[in-house]
TrEMBL record, chain A:
It comes from Citrus sinensis (Sweet orange). The active site is at 426 (4-aspartylphosphate intermediate). It is found in: Membrane. GO terms for cellular component: membrane. Residues 884-980 form the P-type ATPase C-terminal domain. This is Phospholipid-transporting ATPase.
UniProtKB/TrEMBL annotation, chain B:
The lineage of its organism: Eukaryota, Viridiplantae, Streptophyta, Embryophyta, Tracheophyta. Its main location: membrane. It comes from Citrus sinensis. This is ALA-interacting subunit. One of its GO terms (cellular component) is endoplasmic reticulum. Pfam families: CDC50.
Length: 1000, 343
C-alpha cells in the first residue's frame, strides 16, 4: 500500500495545475435535453432499460458495399456514367424491331464492360473487408458477471459493458474511465491516431469510482451515465454519472477514445458509452466517397457533346428518311415499288411518314451509337490498374528502412496526380519523422554542437557549398541514439570540465536533468534507462543530459536522483535533489520551473522557457551572456531549431516559505480562477533569474523534405500545412522545411490573445463567440489589406492561423475572405486544427478554387482530410494504418511525393489524356462512316458493317493499341520530368497541360 | 545507376516487399522517339512523292487499257408513242418489250468480255429491302416454310414462297442477246455468282415454289425445276449492292470483239425502273490486272505524291530562306511568356 500512496503523491505534485475538483457548471445543465439524451446503464447491458435504448453494436465497416447492397449500389455507380445509361437503353431497345443490330451483339459489349468494372470494385472492396475483419475480431477483456473478465471480440461489445484494457492496447470503443491500476485512477493515453500528437495525455477517473482496482470490485457495480449524443468533437464531452443515487459530472478528462492507446499504465477499467459508428473517431470520418478524377469529368462533357452530335445526326437522317418514305407512295402509285410501300409496317409506312420518321430517329440513335466509345471506361480502368502497378513497382519510391513500397490503393486517380495544385499536408509523421533531437546548445555564451540540420543542409545546397558531402560521411560512423544528435568533443565524454565556464556548464546540464516531468524506466537486464515523457522535446532534454554525464535515473515523491559527473574527481556520483514544487508548462506561461533543494541545502529554482518570456525575467547580474545567447538563438531559429532558454536562481528560505504558502493555498482553492491565481504566484518567484544558456532541438524532418518542397514549389504547387500542433511548433517546422523563410511576413491569426482569453471567461457564451468571431474577422481583414498593399520588395506573405480562429474563419460568411487571403499567401499553416477542420479546409479549397487538391497525412486524424481531398495520400509510417486504409495512394516518405507527382503524375496524366483523345478519334472516325453511308442508303438505318464487326470493333479490335499508349507512352524520361519541373506551370490547354513541351 | 542495381539484386533474395528491378517495371526501357527535324521531314516527303507518282501513273495506265462500252437504254427503248408515260408502257404486259441497240467497239476487246447491267437510284441497301430474305429457307429444304422477315412477300394464297422476300421478288429480268455481223454471239451465264454463295448459301435441293404468283408481280420469274444453287442470276441479284448505283454481272462473251465491230444487242426491256426514275445501262468491259475501268486509284496516287513533292520543295525553300536553330529553348512557351511562372 505504501507504494501506491507514493505514486499518488507524486502525480498530484507533478500535475499541480491540472488536478482539481470538478463541479457541475455550464454545459452540464444540458444533460437530458435535446442532443444530450444518451443513457448508458453501466455493467448492465442486458437489462430491460438498456435493451429498450437499442444502441448500435461495436461492429465497424469501412467497405463501400455489403453483400446485399453490392448489386444495387455498384450498378448505380456504373449507371451514374451517362454513357452506360445510354448503352443500357440501347440494349433494351435492341430487342425490338427498331434495332439496326442484333440484340446479342448489342448487349454483349455492355455486359462485358459493366462486368469488368464491377469485378474491379469487388476486388478493391475485398481488401477493405479483410482489414475490417481484423479490427472487428480483436479481443478485449469484458466483465461477464460475477466479477470475472473474459476475452470478447471487439465487434460484440455493447454499450454499458465494463472492459479492462491492458497496457499498449487500443481502446475498442469510447470509454468512460472508471479506475486504473494507479491508486489515483489516472492513466496515460497516446492519441497519435486521433490527432497525430505523440505526447501522452493524462486521463483521470472520478474519485467515486477510483477505488475499484480488482476485477471482483465490478461484481455489483451499477451506474447510469447520461451524456451527449454521438458527435464528432474530439475535445469536448459532457455527461454525468449516477452512482448510488449520487450525481457526478463527467468531462473529457474521463473519456477514453477509440483508436487511442493505453500507455504507461498496467490496465484500466472503463464503461463503454459509444460503440462502432457512434464513436468520436468514426463520427469524425466521413464515409469513403467514390472519387472521380477531373479528366473523367471532362470526358463526361465530351461524351455529352458527342451525344449532341449523335442526336443531330439522327435528326437529320430522320428528316430525309421521312421525306423519302412519304414520297414512296403518292396517289396510289408506288415509287420504289421493290420496297412494297403499299403493304408495309409502321416503320416504313408512307401514309404515316411522320411516325416512321420518329421511329427511325430511335433506330438512328442506336445506329450511330459507335460515336460513343462504350469500352472507353473499361479501357481506362484497365490502363489505370496497369499504371498503378508501375507506381507500386517503382524502386525510387521504395523505402528500405520500413520495407514499404508505394501502393496505389485506388487506381482511379492516377492522372489527377499530374494536375495537383494545392497540397494539404499534415505535419507530425508526414513532414517530420516524429522525433526530437537535441542538436545544439549555447552555454555561457559559447555555442556547442556540430550537428547540421536539414534546413542548414538545404540552404547549403542552394548556395552550392560542399557542406553536404562532409556531413553525410560524418553521420555514418556515428552510433545513433534516438533523440540525440549532438556532436562536440569540447563537452562530450566529460571534457566540459576543461572549458572556461565549467561551472555554468555543470549547472546547465544539471538543470536539464532535473527540470522536467519525465519518468525514468530502467531496463532490468542491462540497466539502461529510457524515459517516458509527455512530449518528445522533453525526452530529448533528459536524454541529452544523460549522454553528457547527468543521468537522471529515479523519481520519487519528493526527490529526483541523478548520476552526476564530479568535475573535481572526474567520477560519477549519485546526487539526489528533493523536489519541492513543479510549476507546470502551459501555453500561456511558455515556461516551466522546478524548485529543488540540493544536498548542500541550497534552494534552487530551475527554469526553462521560450526566449520571449525568459529574457525579461533575468536578473541584472544574470545577463552576462545575454548578447551572445540571443545571437545564438537567432542562429538556431534560422536553422529551424526549437530553442529554449535555461536559467536558474537561488532562493532564500524566507522567500520560498512565503511562496510555498501562497502557492499551496492557491492550488487548494476551489474558485474557478484557481489556475490563474497559481500562475500569478508562480510569476512572482520566477524572476531575477540567472541565464545559463539555451538549447536547440531539431524536430527531425524526414529525409529530403525541404528539397521536395522546393521542387514542388518550383512546379507551382502550393503547400498548406494543417497540423494539430501548437503554433510555435508549427512555425518552427515551417522554417525547417523551407515553407517559411526569413524575410517572409507572417500574418498570424490567433484566438489565444489576452483579450480573447478574457472573453472566454465570460458567462455569456454566445456573446463571447460573437466577439471572438469579430476579432478573427478583423484580423483577416487586416491580413487582406496587407496582402493587397504588398509589393514584391516586402517579400511574400505567410498565413498562420490557429484552430479556434479557423472555426470562425470557416463559417459561411467569412470563409471567402479567409480563402482569398490564404490563396494570396505563399505559405499557409493551420495549427491546432481538429480532423474535422482539416477536412473542412480541404473542402473549402477544393470547391472554391476548383483546383485539384492533394492531402497527405499519416494518422487517423488525417482520414477526413484524405477522403475530402481530390487525392488522399497516406504515409505508411510506423504508426497506425488508418490513414493508409482511407488513402488513395500510400507512400512511405514525404519526399516520394516529388516523384509521384512530377513523374508518375505527369506521365499518367499525359497518357490518360492522349488515350482519351485517341479513343474519341477512333470512334468518331468510325461512327461517321456509318452516317456517311446512310446518305447512300436513303437514311433507312442499314449499317454499313456487320453486327459483330461493329460490336467487336470497340471491345476487341481497337483496344490494344490504345491501352498500350495509355500504359507505356513517355513524352520525356523520368529524369527530365524531375529536372524540368517548372513546365508544370504552363497555361492550361485543352487536355494535356503540363510538361508537354520540351526543347527539341 | 549500376551500383543501385547490384545492391537491389543482392537484397532481393530475402523476403522483402522491395520491387524487383527490371528495366520494364522501372519504365526505363530504351525507347526511340524520332525528332522530326527538317532533314527527316523533307526526306520523307521526297521519298513518298517519288514512290507514289510512278505507282499512280502505272495504275492510270492500266485503267486506260480497259475497254468499256456503256449504253443507257431505259429511255431509248421506249417507243415514241409512250415517251410521255413510260410507266404505262412498262407496266402493260401486252406491249412489245423487245428493243434493239447497236454498240460500237472502239478497240479490240479481248475475251472474256464481261456483260454487266447497271442500275441507278435503286436502293438495294434499304434496310427494309436488305432484311427481306430468309437465309435458312434459301439453304435448306427443311426450312422451306421459314419465311420470317419476308413480309409482305412471305406467303401467297397461304403457301410460303420460295425464295421469299422483297429481294427475290424484285429480281432483275431484262435480258440481252448479242450478235456481231448478224452472227449470234454465245453468252455464258455460268460461274457469274460467288462460289461460296453457290456452295454454302443457296441449297441444291431447294426449288422455287409459289414464286411470283401473287397479285402483284415484281420482277423476274424462276424456273421451278432448277434448284436455287444453279439459279446464278438470282444469286447475283440476292447479293445486295452497297450503293444505289451498282453493276451486276449478267454474263460473259467468251470471244474477242474486234475493233470497229458493231455489236447488236436485242434487249427484253422488262424491268421497271421508270417509277422511281432509275437509269438502266448495259456495260461491256474487259479487265486488266487492276480490274475494271477505274481511274480513281491512279489519280489519288498522283495527287498525294505531287502534294508531297510540293511540300518537300516548299520546306526546302523555307529552310533556306528562314533557317532557325534546332532545340532553341527560347521558343518554349514559358520562355516566350516569362510572366507565366513565378518562382
Amino acid at each position: 500500500m505504501a507504494g501506491n500512496r507514493r505514486k499518488k503523491h507524486h502525480f498530484s505534485r507533478i500535475h499541480a495545475f491540472s488536478c482539481g475538483k470538478t463541479s457541475f457548471k455550464g454545459d452540464h445543465s444540458l444533460i437530458g435535453g435535446p442532443g444530450f439524451s444518451r443513457v448508458v446503464h453501466c455493467n448492465d447491458p442486458e437489462s430491460f432499460e438498456a435493451s429498450v435504448l437499442n444502441y448500435s453494436g461495436n461492429y465497424v465497416r469501412t467497405t463501400k458495399y455489403t453483400l446485399a447492397t453490392f448489386f444495387p449500389k455498384a450498378l448505380f455507380e456504373q449507371f451514374r456514367r451517362v454513357a452506360n445509361v445510354y448503352f443500357l437503353i440501347c440494349a433494351i431497345l435492341s430487342f425490338t424491331p427498331l434495332s439496326p443490330y442484333s440484340a446479342v451483339s448489342n448487349v454483349l459489349p455492355l455486359v462485358v464492360v459493366i462486368g469488368a468494372t464491377m469485378g474491379k470494385e469487388v476486388l478493391e472492396d475485398w481488401r477493405r473487408k479483410k482489414q475490417d475483419i481484423e479490427v472487428n475480431n480483436r479481443k478485449v477483456k469484458v466483465h461477464c458477471g460475477e466479477g470475472a473478465f473474459d476475452y470478447t471480440k471487439w465487434r460484440d461489445l455493447k454499450v454499458g459493458d465494463v472492459v479492462k484494457v491492458e497496457k499498449d492496447e487500443f481502446f475498442p470503443a469510447d470509454l468512460i474511465l472508471l479506475s486504473s491500476s494507479y491508486e489515483e485512477a489516472i492513466c496515460y493515453v497516446e492519441t497519435t491516431n486521433l490527432d497525430g500528437e505523440t505526447n501522452l495525455k493524462l486521463k483521470q477517473a472520478l474519485d467515486a469510482t477510483s477505488n475499484m482496482h480488482e476485477d471482483s470490485n465490478f461484481q455489483n457495480f451499477k451506474a447510469i451515465i447520461r451524456c451527449e449524443d454521438p458527435n464528432a468533437n474530439l475535445y469536448t464531452f459532457v455527461g454525468s454519472l449516477e452512482l448510488e443515487e449520487q450525481q457526478y459530472p463527467l468531462t473529457p478528462q474521463q473519456l477514453l477514445l477509440r483508436d487511442s492507446k493505453l500507455r504507461n499504465t498496467d490496465c484500466i477499467y472503463g464503461a463503454v458509452i459509444f460503440t462502432g459508428r457512434d464513436t468520436k473517431v468514426f463520427q469524425n470520418s466521413t464515409g469513403p466517397p467514390s472519387k472521380r478524377s477531373k479528366v473523367e469529368r471532362r470526358m463526361d462533357k465530351i461524351i455529352y457533346f458527342l451525344f449532341g452530335i449523335l442526336v443531330l445526326m439522327s435528326f437529320i437522317g430522320s428528316i430525309f428518311f421521312g421525306i423519302a418514305t412519304r414520297e414512296d407512295l403518292q396517289d396510289g402509285k408506288m415509287k420504289r415499288w421493290y420496297l412494297r410501300p403499299d403493304d408495309t409496317t409502321a416503320y416504313y409506312d408512307p401514309k404515316r411518314a411522320a411516325v416512321a420518321a420518329v421511329l427511325h430517329f430511335l433506330t438512328a440513335l442506336m445506329l450511330y451509337g459507335y460515336l460513343i466509345p462504350i469500352s472507353l471506361y473499361v479501357s481506362i480502368e484497365i490502363v489505370k490498374i496497369l499504371q498503378s502497378i508501375f507506381i507500386n513497382q517503382d524502386l525510387h519510391m521504395y523505402y528500405e528502412e520500413t520495407d514499404k513500397p508505394a501502393r496505389a490503393r485506388t487506381s482511379n486517380l492516377n492522372e489527377e496526380l499530374g494536375q495537383v495544385d494545392t497540397i494539404l499536408s499534415d505535419k507530425t509523421g508526414t513532414l517530420t519523422c516524429n522525433s526530437m533531437e537535441f542538436i545544439k546548445c549555447s552555454i555561457a555564451g559559447t555555442s556547442y554542437g556540430r550537428g547540421v540540420t536539414e534546413v542548414e543542409r538545404a540552404m547549403a545546397r542552394r548556395k552550392g557549398s560542399p557542406l553536404e558531402e562532409e556531413v553525410t560521411e560524418e553521420q555514418e560512423d556515428k552510433a545513433s541514439i534516438k533523440g540525440f544528435n549532438f556532436e562536440d568533443e569540447r563537452i562530450m565524454n566529460g571534457s566540459w570540465v576543461n572549458e572556461p565556464h565549467a561551472d555554468v556548464i555543470q549547472k546547465f546540464l544539471r538543470l536539464l536533468a532535473i527540470c522536467h516531468t519525465a519518468l525514468p524506466e530502467v531496463d532490468e537486464e542491462n540497466g539502461k534507462i529510457s524515459y517516458e515523457a509527455e512530449s518528445p522535446d522533453e525526452a530529448a532534454f533528459v536524454i541529452a543530459a544523460r549522454e553528457l554525464g547527468f543521468e537522471f535515473y529515479e523519481r520519487t515523491q519528493t526527490s529526483i536522483s541523478v548520476h552526476e559527473l564530479d568535475p573535481v574527481t572526474g567520477t560519477k556520483v549519485e546526487r539526489s535533489y528533493s523536489l519541492l514544487n513543479v510549476l507546470e508548462f502551459s501555453s500561456s506561461r511558455k515556461r516551466m520551473s522546478v524548485i529543488v533543494r540540493s544536498e548542500e541545502g541550497t534552494l534552487l529554482l530551475l527554469s526553462k522557457g521560450a526566449d520571449s518570456v525568459m529574457f525579461e525575467r533575468l536578473a541584472e547580474n544574470g545577463r552576462e551572456f545575454e548578447e551572445q545567447t540571443k545571437e545564438h538563438i537567432n542562429e538556431y531559429a534560422d536553422a529551424g531549431l526549437r530553442t529554449l532558454i535555461l536559467a536558474y536562481r537561488e532562493l532564500d528560505e524566507k522567500e520560498y516559505k512565503q511562496f510555498n504558502e501562497e502557492f499551496t493555498e492557491a492550488k487548494n482553492s476551489v474558485s474557478a480562477d484557481r489556475e490563474e491565481l497559481a500562475e500569478e504566484i508562480a510569476e512572482k518567484i520566477e524572476k531575477n533569474l540567472i541565464l545559463l544558456g539555451a538549447t536547440a532541438v531539431e524536430d527531425k524532418l524526414q529525409n529530403g523534405v525541404p528539397e521536395c518542397i522546393d521542387k514542388l514549389a518550383q512546379a507551382g504547387i502550393k503547400l498548406w500545412v494543417l497540423t494539430g500542433d501548437k503554433m510555435e511548433t508549427a512555425i518552427n517546422i515551417g522554417f525547417a522545411c523551407s515553407l517559411l523563410r526569413q524575410g517572409m511576413r507572417q500574418v498570424i491569426i490567433s484566438s489565444e490573445t489576452p483579450e480573447s482569453k478574457t472573453l472566454e471567461k465570460s458567462e455569456d457564451k454566445s456573446a463571447a463567440a460573437a466577439a471572438l468571431k469579430a476579432s478573427v474577422l478583423h484580423q483577416l481583414i487586416r491580413g487582406k489589406e496587407l496582402l493587397d498593399s504588398s509589393n514584391e520588395s516586402l517579400g511574400p506573405l505567410a498565413l498562420i492561423i490557429d484552430g479556434k480562429s479557423l472555426t470562425y474563419a470557416l463559417e459561411d460568411d467569412v470563409k471567402d475572405l479567409f480563402l482569398e487571403l490564404a490563396i494570396g499567401c505563399a505559405s499557409v499553416i493551420c495549427c491546432r486544427s481538429s480532423p474535422k477542420q482539416k477536412a473542412l479546409v480541404t473542402r473549402l479549397v477544393k470547391t472554391k478554387t476548383s483546383s485539384t487538391t492533394l492531402a497527405i497525412g499519416d494518422g487517423a486524424n488525417d482520414v477526413g482530410m484524405l477522403q475530402e481531398a481530390d487525392i488522399g495520400v497516406g504515409i505508411s509510417g510506423v504508426e497506425g494504418m488508418q490513414a493508409v486504409m482511407s488513402s488513395d495512394i500510400a507512400i512511405a516518405q514525404f519526399r516520394f511525393l516529388e516523384r509521384l507527382l512530377l513523374v508518375h503524375g505527369h506521365w499518367c496524366y499525359r497518357r490518360i489524356s492522349s488515350m482519351i483523345c485517341y479513343f474519341f478519334y477512333k470512334n468518331i472516325a468510325f461512327g461517321f462512316t456509318l452516317f456517311f453511308f446512310e446518305a447512300y442508303a436513303s437514311f433507312s438505318g442499314q449499317p454499313v458493317y456487320n453486327d459483330w464487326f461493329l460490336s467487336l470493333y470497340n471491345v476487341f479490335f481497337t483496344s490494344l493499341p490504345v491501352i498500350a499508349l495509355g500504359v507505356f507512352d513517355q513524352d520525356v524520361s523520368a529524369r527530365f520530368c524531375l529536372k524540368f519541373a517548372f513546365p508544370f506551370v504552363t497555361v492550361p490547354s485543352v487536355i494535356p497541360r503540363r510538361c508537354t513541351e520540351y526543347p527539341v | 545507376m549500376k551500383g543501385r542495381r547490384s545492391s537491389s539484386d543482392s537484397s532481393s533474395s530475402s523476403k522483402t516487399k522491395k520491387p524487383q528491378y527490371s528495366k520494364f517495371t522501372q519504365q526505363e526501357l530504351s525507347a526511340c522517339k524520332p525528332i522530326l527535324t527538317p532533314g527527316y521531314v523533307i526526306g520523307i516527303f521526297i521519298i513518298v512523292g517519288v514512290i507514289f507518282i510512278p505507282v499512280g501513273i502505272i495504275s492510270l495506265f492500266a485503267s486506260e487499257n480497259v475497254v468499256e462500252i456503256v449504253d443507257r437504254y431505259d429511255e431509248g427503248c421506249i417507243p415514241p408513242n409512250y415517251s410521255d408515260d413510260m410507266l404505262a408502257y412498262i407496266q402493260n404486259s401486252d406491249t412489245n418489250k423487245t428493243c434493239t441497240r447497236s454498240l460500237k467497239a472502239t478497240k479490240l476487246m479481248k475475251s472474256p468480255v464481261y456483260i454487266y447491267y447497271q442500275l441507278d437510284n435503286f436502293y438495294q441497301n434499304h434496310r427494309r429491302y436488305v432484311k427481306s430474305r430468309n437465309d435458312k429457307q434459301l439453304w435448306s429444304k427443311k426450312h422451306e416454310d421459314e419465311t420470317k422477315n419476308c413480309a409482305p412477300e412471305a406467303t401467297s394464297n397461304g403457301l410460303s414462297i420460295v425464295p421469299c422476300g422483297l429481294i427475290a421478288w424484285s429480281l432483275f429480268n431484262d435480258s440481252y442477246g448479242f450478235s456481231i455481223k448478224n452472227k449470234m454471239v454465245k453468252v455464258s451465264k455460268k460461274n457469274i455468282a460467288w462460289e461460296s454463295d453457290k456452295k454454302h448459301k443457296f441449297g441444291s435441293d431447294v426449288y422455287p415454289k409459289n414464286f411470283q404468283n401473287g397479285v402483284l408481280i415484281g420482277g423476274g420469274k424462276l424456273n421451278s425445276s432448277i434448284p436455287l444453287s444453279k439459279q446464278e442470276a438470282l444469286i447475283v441479284w440476292m447479293r445486295t449492292a452497297a450503293l444505289p448505283t451498282f453493276r451486276k454481272l449478267y454474263g460473259r462473251i467468251e470471244s474477242d470483239i474486234q475493233a470497229n465491230d458493231s455489236v447488236t444487242v436485242i434487249i427484253e426491256n422488262n424491268y421497271n425502273t421508270y417509277s422511281f426514275g432509275g437509269k438502266k445501262k448495259l456495260v461491256l468491259s474487259t479487265t486488266t490486272w487492276i480490274g475494271g475501268k477505274n481511274d480513281f486509284l491512279g489519280i489519288a496516287y498522283i495527287t498525294v505524291g505531287g502534294l508531297c513533292l510540293f511540300l518537300a520543295i516548299s520546306f526546302i525553300l523555307v529552310y533556306v530562306v528562314m533557317p532557325r536553330p534546332l532545340g532553341d529553348p527560347a521558343f518554349l512557351s514559358w520562355n516566350r511568356h516569362p510572366a507565366g511562372h513565378q518562382i
